[in-house]
Write a structure and sequence with these properties.
single chain, disordered N terminus, mainly alpha, elongated
Length: about 220
């Protein structure tokens, strides 16, 4: 097929590139920055999309951040693509700080005490939870009794506190992202408009000179 990859990636390579993109995180950051600078819409719409993406990155719905951000962007009339790019705020370099902040806030809001070592193995906990969920899902169709012990514990100790704490921490981070993004995007768009206007003026000048030369001949 025309659109099929020439170099087929194995599962291991696909997972690795999900954690560490090809070219490194610097290249990924520059790509996101490049895309954000060229998005259509007002600075406020684009910044609102970025804020929504950052907010979604604080949710415990790993693997669904794009969906969460896209739906919220549609509901709040923000730039959808900007919201998807904003979710890149959540990456392997920030997952631990985000998880620690959300869990700390969640436990405090629920009036519970957080184990200081709980956030260290978050990646393994989420991986095991997904694995257990898949096993129990298959058990339904195989007429086998599932074991929900770990998932119940995961819900009470990780997922629900994270969900609760991710709301205020995500909102705060989203507002910060919004107020940082608006002036930066506006300055870039104004600069780009100035450059385009200068190029257009230069083109008109060259066209006018050529026309004068042709008429003189």
């Amino acid at each position: 097929m025309v659109f099929r990859r020439r170099d087929r990636r194995g599962v291991g390579r696909t997972l690795w590139e999900g954690l560490y993109p090809r070219g490194g995180w610097t290249r990924a950051y520059l790509y996101v920055k490049h895309r954000l600078q060229r998005l259509p819409g007002t600075p406020e719409q684009i910044a609102r999309g970025i804020a929504i993406g950052v907010f979604a990155a604080f949710s415990p719905f790993y693997g669904l951040h794009f969906l969460v951000a896209g739906l919220l962007a549609i509901l709040l009339r923000a730039n959808v693509l900007a919201s998807l790019l904003g979710t890149f705020f959540g990456n392997p370099l920030t997952y631990i700080p985000i998880g620690a902040a959300a869990l700390s806030a969640g436990y405090a809001m629920l009036g519970q005490r957080l184990d200081s070592e709980l956030h260290i193995g978050l990646g393994q906990m989420f991986t095991r939870a997904l694995s257990e969920l898949w096993v129990n899902f298959n058990a339904i169709f195989n007429m086998v009794e599932g074991d929900w012990t770990y998932l119940v514990e995961f819900w009470h100790t990780i997922f629900f506190p994270w969900l609760v704490g991710g709301i205020p921490t995500g909102l705060i981070s989203g507002f910060i992202a919004y107020y940082i993004s608006v002036p930066a995007i506006r300055a870039y768009k104004n600069r780009r408009k100035g450059l385009l206007a200068a190029k257009l003026a230069e083109l008109r000048k060259k066209t006018s000179l050529k026309r004068d030369e042709d008429s003189g001949n």
